[in-house]
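A reminder from the course coordinator: this example appears on the midterm review sheet, so study it carefully.

Given structure:
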């Protein structure tokens, strides 16, 4: 079992619950951090002290306070840790249940597990810890479909980038130029327009502004 674990969560009840789960699993050293910058510093210090963490369990959302933060979310922390310490195991334990968020955290950011803070969350977390310890990927049963592209209403990374640019006021001509400069295909204006229209039909959006709003509400952008 993991020897040293860092819990990153600003809710005392969650900290206590996760601490109890880890203790029952036989984890020897458990530390806590209330915000992401603190967690990152603890991880770095532990490595310098030649006593690194084996696992991080982090939430995604943190309340803002008086501190000036560099890492403002659990996603920022996961990206930072994964880029700096590629072998450190990471479990996301969050109330966020949007498929795109789960897919991004696991497939792009490199989280080893995603456990949904639902009624089953505290029962699933020990299984997730065991799975990650054994080198396996774990995603809560209700969110497993997030890892299958076709089950996420066919929303691709291309779609997200396209609508994000539309949300920022880019014209189709400007998006076409940007895609060409980044070697993103398809990049023609006609292809971009076809994909935009398909997305509007898919989401039942009356126009681009409505599409952007719907995708923001779904936390896809």
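Designed residues:
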């Amino acid at each position: 079992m993991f020897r040293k674990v860092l819990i990153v969560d600003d809710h005392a009840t969650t900290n206590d619950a996760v601490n109890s789960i880890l203790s029952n699993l036989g984890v020897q050293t458990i530390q806590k951090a209330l915000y992401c910058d603190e967690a990152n510093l603890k991880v770095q210090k532990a490595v310098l002290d030649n006593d690194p963490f084996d696992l991080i369990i982090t939430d995604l959302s943190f309340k803002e306070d008086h501190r000036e933060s560099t890492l403002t979310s659990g996603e920022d922390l996961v990206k930072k840790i994964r880029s700096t310490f590629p072998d450190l195991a990471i479990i996301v334990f969050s109330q966020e249940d949007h498929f795109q968020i789960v897919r991004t955290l696991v497939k792009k950011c490199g989280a080893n597990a995603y456990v949904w803070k639902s009624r089953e969350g505290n029962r699933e977390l020990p299984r997730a810890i065991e799975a990650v310890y054994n080198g396996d990927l774990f995603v809560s049963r209700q969110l497993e479909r997030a890892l299958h592209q076709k089950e996420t209403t066919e929303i691709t990374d291309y779609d997200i980038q396209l609508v994000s640019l539309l949300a920022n006021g880019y014209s189709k001509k400007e998006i076409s130029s940007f895609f060409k400069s980044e070697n993103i295909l398809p990049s023609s204006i006609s292809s971009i327009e076809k994909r935009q229209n398909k997305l509007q039909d898919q989401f039942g959006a009356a126009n681009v502004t409505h599409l952007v709003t719907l995708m923001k509400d779904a936390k896809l952008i």
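The chain has two domains: 4-148, 157-217. Strands lie at 4-8, 29-33, 55-58, 89-94, 113-116, 138-139.
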